[in-house]
Amino acid sequence: MSNPLLEIKNLKTSFRIGEEYYAAVDDVSLNVNENEVLAIVGESGSGKSALAFSVMGLHNRAKIEGEINFKGRNIANIPTKEMNKFRGNELSMIFQDPLTALNPLMEVGRQIDEVLILHNKNMPKSKRKKYIIELLERVEIPRPQHVYNQFPHELSGGMRQRVIIAIAIANQPELLIADEPTTALDVTIQAQILDLIRELKDDLGSGVILITHDLGVVAEMADRVAVMYAGEIVEVADVDTLFSDPQHPYTRSLLSSIPLLDDVQDKLHVIHGIVPSLKNLPRTGCRFSSRIPWMDEDVHEENPELSEVSPGHFVRCTCYKHFYFPDENKEEQDHDTTKS
Amino acid sequence: MTLLKVEDLKVHFPIRGGILNRKIDAIRAVDGVNFEIEPGETYGLVGESGSGKTTTGKAVMGLNNITNGEIYFGDELLNKGNKVNIRKDIQMIFQDPYSSLNPRKRVIDIIAEPLRNYENLSKDEEKKRVKDLLEKVGLTAESMLKYPHEFSGGQRQRIGVARAIALEPKLIIMDEPVSALDVSVQAQVLNFMQDLQKELNLTYLFISHDLSVVKHMCDRIGIMYNGRYVEEGTTKEIFNDPQHIYTKRLVAAIPDIDPKNRKENTNFREQVKEEYTNSYYDYFDEDGLAYQLKPITDTHRVALPERG
Ligand SMILES: Nc1ncnc2c1ncn2[C@@H]1O[C@H](COP(=O)(O)OP(=O)(O)OP(=O)(O)O)[C@@H](O)[C@H]1O
Ligand SMILES: Nc1ncnc2c1ncn2[C@@H]1O[C@H](COP(=O)(O)OP(=O)(O)OP(=O)(O)O)[C@@H](O)[C@H]1O
Ligand SMILES: [Mg+2]
Ligand SMILES: [Mg+2]
């Protein structure tokens, strides 16, 4: 089998708070293959964007440890000048936050042009402009000729997001990291943007890391899904398995919080407790244990690791074997697990 | 009595050009919008990206120049020299959690800002209020002394929510309030918003692209397309009996959380898209604008052309 397009090994990304460094991404290993969409879901603050920024080499103040192998080459901590050869070209990212990613003082067209010219030095200006207008059309921006000359603050939230998408796909990347690419878009435009990402994958065989809170988008787009909690991966599975047979208590809790379209729920399911801050994260034992306090302490492993529960399906900590929701009948649950 | 009444609202932005940079045309961001919201109600505003939802919300907040129309809050006309005490009653949670928080201010100062403008609290009282507000949105008290860049996207959005509810306003305009949150925190914020609404008889104008969230939260919904309404109705009418082709397309595009339905969904969407393309001119005029709304029931209005 060929090497994965991206191979992340024991990545640790730490931010400095006061005198100390605290890991927001804590020993994460992941692969992304060519022609594959890997979705990353997880609690807000669990380190998804920090992971993405690490791959892109965009964390200037964070400490990065471990390996990030892109097409066989370790790009963790390589000099910016080296990194710039990849960035925006073979490797590109759709940012979660369009406003800070865009320059407020520069017209939209010029911003796209800057990325384009970086890797297409010989393309004449008129040709570049034509291509940029085409790109704006492909991301469904109305009046592209006019928007070409507009400033970011003159665009709606979703239009800004589409400009970011246009920049990210301008050079047809081999690996695209899409951090919440469609949250600001209505569902019809979202569907078209997702088609565009799918095309990139199908036509060029690109790999995609899709970070999103929208589990519907995950269900429709992903080949595999990794679930993050508190800086760690707690579950990895192919998309069908993740939705039909989720194991980790966090994954199961997450799935039960979704508001359902065909069901009227009075109250939505909420995970008990609050996310500890980076500084106060438990660094030993099962990090999710404080969120399921009704579970017996000895259901958790001392040093929980990812273990393969079925081919390609990995789960961290043994607590999943015993997990039940407080309103479920415990006897029934224990019975079920011993049976299987 | 109706809490918010928007009548024939138009907000146009000039397009400038030529050497003299004169106004050569205008973007009709909002182009003749009418709706009313009753006290205690949650009113959803959904639709095409760029259709004028945020602009409508900002107009109500008094943050846009209004080209035409009237906005009433209770019986006060808002867009003619607005009074400060009404402004306290309307708060907005902004769509972009990054740019709406001042990066140079600490969280305590961000959340306490409205309190400082309207209430006279001692330092200790203020700290306690901010701590309570942070807890309500699921953040720890130690967040108080941090700066916005030290938070993740979802955490920042919660800071915005905490600030908006600080003064316990009557009307809260929520522009994509939970789109940056994971579904569990989202559930927490939505449950909390609903409890708070009951407790304080709050009214919400809820702008969102997430139709399952809209369905869960809203009593009535307005659908916008290109600066105008295409349909308005109760949540049930919009989801079970959509009439306008744009509404139908929107409902068909909602992502399905069962990966096994991928193929089926793709086919169904293709079908609706085709219907959309074929019947476009039955629903929009030659400029691509929606027609006037016509009532089809007491609560359900649809933009259809005059017959005959
Ligand atoms: N520059 C920074 N300095 C200090 N802490 C940071 C910094 N950036 C992020 N963090 C912290 O690191 C953790 C991970 O943040 P990250 O942005 O990766 O979360 P996320 O999973 O992308 O969340 P969301 O879904 O809300 O976007 C959070 O606890 C956040 O507060
Ligand atoms: N300050 C401005 N100057 C010029 N045009 C503007 C300005 N603000 C908004 N617009 C334009 O008005 C239209 C409506 O924008 P608005 O932000 O209200 O859309 P929206 O419905 O909130 O979209 P989204 O769902 O993407 O947030 C867009 O075409 C936008 O480009
Ligand atoms: Mg993020
Ligand atoms: Mg908007």
Automatic annotation (TrEMBL), chain A:
<comment type="similarity">
    <text>Belongs to the ABC transporter superfamily.</text>
</comment>
<dbReference type="GO" id="GO:0005886">
    <property type="term" value="C:plasma membrane"/>
</dbReference>
<protein>
    <submittedName>
        <fullName>Peptide/nickel transport system ATP-binding protein</fullName>
    </submittedName>
</protein>
<dbReference type="InterPro" id="IPR003593">
    <property type="entry name" value="AAA+_ATPase"/>
</dbReference>
<dbReference type="InterPro" id="IPR003439">
    <property type="entry name" value="ABC_transporter-like_ATP-bd"/>
</dbReference>
<keyword id="KW-0472">Membrane</keyword>
<keyword id="KW-0813">Transport</keyword>
<feature type="domain" description="ABC transporter">
    <location>
        <begin position="6"/>
        <end position="255"/>
    </location>
</feature>
<dbReference type="InterPro" id="IPR050388">
    <property type="entry name" value="ABC_Ni/Peptide_Import"/>
</dbReference>
<dbReference type="InterPro" id="IPR027417">
    <property type="entry name" value="P-loop_NTPase"/>
</dbReference>
<dbReference type="Pfam" id="PF00005">
    <property type="entry name" value="ABC_tran"/>
</dbReference>
<keyword id="KW-0067">ATP-binding</keyword>
<keyword id="KW-1003">Cell membrane</keyword>
<dbReference type="GO" id="GO:0005524">
    <property type="term" value="F:ATP binding"/>
</dbReference>
<dbReference type="Pfam" id="PF08352">
    <property type="entry name" value="oligo_HPY"/>
</dbReference>
<keyword id="KW-0547">Nucleotide-binding</keyword>
<dbReference type="GO" id="GO:0015833">
    <property type="term" value="P:peptide transport"/>
</dbReference>
<dbReference type="InterPro" id="IPR013563">
    <property type="entry name" value="Oligopep_ABC_C"/>
</dbReference>
<dbReference type="InterPro" id="IPR017871">
    <property type="entry name" value="ABC_transporter-like_CS"/>
</dbReference>
<dbReference type="GO" id="GO:0016887">
    <property type="term" value="F:ATP hydrolysis activity"/>
</dbReference>
From TrEMBL, chain B:
<dbReference type="InterPro" id="IPR003439">
    <property type="entry name" value="ABC_transporter-like_ATP-bd"/>
</dbReference>
<dbReference type="Pfam" id="PF08352">
    <property type="entry name" value="oligo_HPY"/>
</dbReference>
<dbReference type="InterPro" id="IPR050319">
    <property type="entry name" value="ABC_transp_ATP-bind"/>
</dbReference>
<dbReference type="GO" id="GO:0005524">
    <property type="term" value="F:ATP binding"/>
</dbReference>
<dbReference type="InterPro" id="IPR003593">
    <property type="entry name" value="AAA+_ATPase"/>
</dbReference>
<dbReference type="InterPro" id="IPR013563">
    <property type="entry name" value="Oligopep_ABC_C"/>
</dbReference>
<dbReference type="Pfam" id="PF00005">
    <property type="entry name" value="ABC_tran"/>
</dbReference>
<dbReference type="GO" id="GO:0015833">
    <property type="term" value="P:peptide transport"/>
</dbReference>
<comment type="similarity">
    <text>Belongs to the ABC transporter superfamily.</text>
</comment>
<dbReference type="GO" id="GO:0055085">
    <property type="term" value="P:transmembrane transport"/>
</dbReference>
<keyword id="KW-0067">ATP-binding</keyword>
<feature type="domain" description="ABC transporter">
    <location>
        <begin position="4"/>
        <end position="251"/>
    </location>
</feature>
<keyword id="KW-0547">Nucleotide-binding</keyword>
<dbReference type="GO" id="GO:0016887">
    <property type="term" value="F:ATP hydrolysis activity"/>
</dbReference>
<keyword id="KW-0813">Transport</keyword>
<dbReference type="InterPro" id="IPR027417">
    <property type="entry name" value="P-loop_NTPase"/>
</dbReference>
<protein>
    <submittedName>
        <fullName>Peptide/nickel transport system ATP-binding protein</fullName>
    </submittedName>
</protein>
<dbReference type="InterPro" id="IPR017871">
    <property type="entry name" value="ABC_transporter-like_CS"/>
</dbReference>
